[in-house]
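Subject: sequence -> structure tokens, single chain

Hey, anyone have a minute? Need the predicted structure for the following. Not urgent.
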Amino acid sequence: MRVHFLACAFAVGIGSLGACGGSSDTTLLSDAGGASSSGGAGVACATAGACGTQKCDANLGCVQCLADVDCSGGNPFCVRGACEACRTSADCGAAAPVCAPGSHQCVRSCLGDGGVACNGDTAKCDPASGACVECVAASDCPAGRPICEPQTKQCAECAKASDCPATKPRCDLRDFRCVECTTSADCGAGRTCDPRENRCIAACSSDAQCTPGTPKCNLPTATCVQCLTAPDCAGTSTPVCATSHRCVECVTSSDCKADGGAPICDTGRGRCAECLRDTDCPSSGNQKGKCDNGACRLN
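Reply:
Had a minute. Here:
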């Protein structure tokens, strides 16, 4: 689950880099127990070339965007490394006037007469924003994710390093979970931080040091990976090498067959799907199309 900040003003103990207007909102990793761009090595992707075609944010790692100029279409705002539909509710129209803090999509308000009913994973109505959210207080959260992150209003494992145990002493502020490392400086000699899983692993300098499951040494990060280029994935059902250096079915919709029943690339999962959102699905009569785990159905 990827989560994003609603605004550039952050909670106590969380820092901010850059201005709101044209750049993504970021949080200093020094507050999460790692090195910040102003004080050290940064996250694991800071090594040149580590992100492939993605961009390296010194505080968040490999991301889709660094500023609004990197975004276009229906998702013009760069919020914590991802292109989103809105940054704040000021970006939304009258029909859906609330920018949901977790998804950064414009939604209807849950406040007042005629407000939408909140249910499921977002069962709480946030009185401050009017959005349906997962939590408004820590008491709304389960034991495994005991913190109600104040900007996203989502239950989280951590908001800072001190929330984490000694076995996973860093707080990854991309999704607010405790991890072993955010930079290779967190690991001992001869070891490096795997940017995909945020764990310390043996560093490599050649393919000979890698195992069959991850046979290629990605020199910029000194980590063994599944692929470096598309030929490494040839002859499989996942023929594309993603920027995460994993063989996947697709990275863009052009990798999917338009007439194969799954023409849209779910980039988060690296697989071709029939739909990503309800608007991708046709309606029939009084029944509206609904996207359910990548497949369309009538609701």
